[in-house]
Amino acid sequence: MKIAYVIDSTVELHDSLKDHPDIYKIPVTIQIDEKEYLDGVNITNEELFHFMRDGKKKITTSLPSVGKFVEMFEMLLKDYDYVIALMLSSHLSGTYNSASVAAQTLSDKVKVINTNLVSYPISYCLQNFIH
User: Fold this and answer.
1) Considering the chain, what is the average pLDDT of its residues?
2) Which helix (H) or strand (E) holds 7?
3) How many CA atoms lie within 13 A of 110 on its CB side?
4) H-only helix segments in 78-116
């Protein structure tokens, strides 16, 4: 059985998982003033922290859309038997809800888990799933 794991870009992966072929990150959108970035795609953590320390720019985030999750899940189901999405706590973000709606439009081969965690602890959960 082949399983893909999906996390959002707020998760800081343990070094042993950074290049794992079955882990996929869906980026959170970061808006800095009027410009949009995809976390980890066209802005690095270092660049983001620079803007945050500077304090002169308005910085907001938005969760990946249901459509983006549907696209990713459909793509993964072509090569994997199941998809497990471990999402940032629903108490902090709507990412879990967005992923859940996307999963409901597809098959029962996509499971979305509300980890009730943030960042690195989600990586620890992944280590337990994978190893």
Assistant:
1) 88
2) strand 3-8
3) 24
4) 95-104
